[in-house]
Amino acid sequence: MTQWIRWWGLGVFAAIILVLWLVTNPLIEWSIEFAGTQAVGAKVELDSVDLGLNPVTLKLNRLQVTNPNEPMRNITEAGRIEMALDGYALMRRQFIAETMAVEGLRFGTERSESGAIEGRLFSRKEEAGQDGDEGFDIGSVLPGMEMPDPDRIVDEERERLAGKVDELDAEAREIEQGWNDHIESLPSGDSVDNYRERWDELKEKNPLSRVAGVRELKKDIDGDLERVSSLDDRLKSDRQRLSELAEQARNLPAREAERLMAASGLDEGFQGVTRQLMGEQLSRWVDNGLTGYRLASRHMAGRETEEETGPPRGEGEDIRFPEEEPLPGFLVKRAAVDGVARMGASNVDFDGSIRDITREPAIWGKPMTLELDGTDEAGATLEVDGTFDHREEPGRDQLDFKVRQLTLKDATFSGSSKLPIVLEEGKANIDGNLSVTGGDLDATVNTEVSQASFAAGAEESGEVVQRLARAIEGVSSFRMDLGVGGTLGSPEISLNSNLDQIIGKALGDEVRGELAEARQALENRLRAELGPELESLAGRQEALDEYREQIDQRRKALKDIRP
Amino acid sequence: MLGILARILKVLNSETSPAQIAAAVLLALFMGLSPLGAPHNLFLLLLVLVLRVNLSLFLVSFALFSGIAWLLDPLAHSLGKTLLEAGMLEGLWTAMYNTGFWRFLGFNNTVLLGQVVIALLLAVPVFFGVIFIVRNYREHLKARIEKSRLMLALKSSKWGGKFYDIYSSMSH
Q: Where, by residue number, does the polypeptide cross the bilayer (chain B) (predicted)?
């Protein structure tokens, strides 16, 4: 038997186990960094990892998650994450933490080196950068600058407009064609002659047969008269419809001019001008706000579509079986969180908890919940409550937040080179809520800013822009209601603000006059383009008058021979 | 590489028991076909080191079976999935799933189970096949190969001579 045993092999095995133990921490660190980087699409880094065995604890020191859209910035950074793990569950390949402490959590921190990874990123970033440099072309909404070119718009819209005219024309033709059929179905001159012959024949019959025949004849003529009468109402309604079509044709140029001006953001003068001025900045804020959520939401639903594509080679698929007390593969029951959030000009210290963090909420049976409270030195307060429920599809996430007395300083409202706008200081109260159901986004952020002080540029610009800049600088309080709809991948932003009225007042009738002129020019151009087709539509209802005469003639003929 | 081949040749030509050679190949079969990180591989490694199996042959066989495992991966996944989803085995799997030991081994992974089952199916033919080959080689082929023209030509060539030198140095 001993000839089969190699005693020194035991020593080698022990040495291998020792080496494995020594590389465990770096191995865990590498695994987390690798998996995190794969998931985020930008570098996820850890300073170090400590695994303790009795009790089983895992400590992650300085976790940094790069923002994939801004590689020199972290989405989030945590100073220390420590968790107590269930050792028995770990043996069962389940990562269950009763408690977790996340300390020194911060957002949007700067990185000392780029967190970009090869070949994955930043085409989107480059696009955003280009847009940002260009800024919003204020010329499109201010007078004395470029107004929409009617010829260009008509050229672009020609096909669609022709389609609209064809639509009206087709309906009118259909009505006319219908009347040709109706008239053909009426009793003809032959029918009237036939009735007359029958009447003549009846006159020569005996009284008994004559009475019966007259009754029959009357019945037939009355039937025809009824058919003729039924067309009266039809003729009336079709004439009305043709009048409406003619009216629509007459108004088409004006209506289309209005619609096209609205599409250019110029419909109501100043309604939405703040949205236009802040467009680029708003998109960036919304995008930054959603980046972290997008990354997290990718993993909230848990199971990916492995069934469709098959598992990666060498990894296989873990099949689950019924358990007495089913637990997900990954679960943190309660995470105590504290950190600092940079908001406006304030550093808001916050703490709170996140409960039931898991990728398999359907198995755990509870949604993830979040509660955070914070304050800053100047007295600003922050409250955040959220529920992320992915127990059933579609998942539903709800996040509410409230900020009071937040100090704002040097917030860029418009990066336009023609009209840069910076909110130098102010105090903000913000109420927001975000709801995401199956990827559909519905968010509102209502902000009221008081004690505001704006700095608007435009020294080199024309009189109107300078007037606008002065008007903005005079604003001491304002309201902005931001709405975000659409989907997570393609959010649609809307903004209502009383700054619109303030700007409107500042620029007054001058801009309205220019906008009206531009609209009239567009309407005239459209009228010239569509004129002939529209005119032919205008007189269509008169064609029905001929049918009126024919109906009356047939009715009279029938009545004349009715015994 | 030449050294390893020479070692294998030496083992084949030595008095080492064919069963020990077959055991090395068998252990390589199980370790090579399983995913490297599978927990049971630690136990197999202990066996490889403690049992007096030939390490050179184990390493070469391990590399060979690892390559085969990569090729067999889709088949192993399908086989494992079929077994794990088989209605008649559900009771067995459920009982194992509720046991810490089996969960630790990760038996419910389709690829792991499939590859272990393939290794089990191949174990007996591979073990006895290796014994058969070694015996036949020693009894019939060894002398004929040594005297063959190919071997003589190999010995006289540059690389063949070098290989033969290594082999000779091991034999003494």
A: 21-38, 44-71, 111-134
Number of structural domains found in chain A: 2
d(CA A272, CA A435): 24
Task: Decide if pLDDT at B60 tops 70.
Answer: yes
Are both A79 and A151 inside the same structural domain? no
| CA-based nearest residue in chain B for residue A89 | B100
Indicate whether A20 and A106 sit together in one domain. Answer: yes
- Note whether B127 and B29 are within 8 A (CB): no
A276 and A144 in a single domain? The answer is: yes
- Residue in B81, B93, B112 nearest the CB of A321: B93
Residue A242's Cα: distance from chain center in Å?
Answer: 39
**pLDDT tens across A200-258, in order?**
888 787 887 878 888 888 888 888 888 888 888 888 888 888 888 888 877 877 887 77
In a domain, A536, yes or no: yes
Q: Which residues contact A496 (CB under 8 A, 6 or more apart)?
A: A480, A481, A483
Dist CA A113 CA A42 (whole Å): 12
Tell me, yes or no, whether A270 and A149 share the same domain.
yes
Output the CA torsion A501→A506→A510→A515 (10° steps).
-30
- Chain A residues touching residue B84 (CB < 8 angstroms): 319
State the residue range of the domain holding A11.
2-134
C-alpha distances out from residue A378 to A73, A108, A343, A426, Å = 26, 21, 12, 13
Split into its structural domains, chain B has a count of 1
The upper half-sphere exposure of residue A355, i.e. CA atoms within 13 Å in the direction of its Cβ, equals 10
A3 vs B contacts (CB less than 8 Å): 52
Residue ranges making up the domain that contains B65: 2-171
Residues A50 and A152 reside in one and the same domain: no
Q: Which residues, 6+ apart, have CB-to-CB distance to A465 below 8 Å?
A: A138, A142, A418, A419, A458
The complex scores an ipTM of 0.78
A400-418 tens-digit pLDDT: 999 999 888 888 877 777 7
Residue A433 lies in a domain: yes
Q: Which of residues 300-329 of A touch B (CB under 8 A)?
A: 310-311, 313-324
Of A9, A16, A315, Cβ closest to residue B111: A315
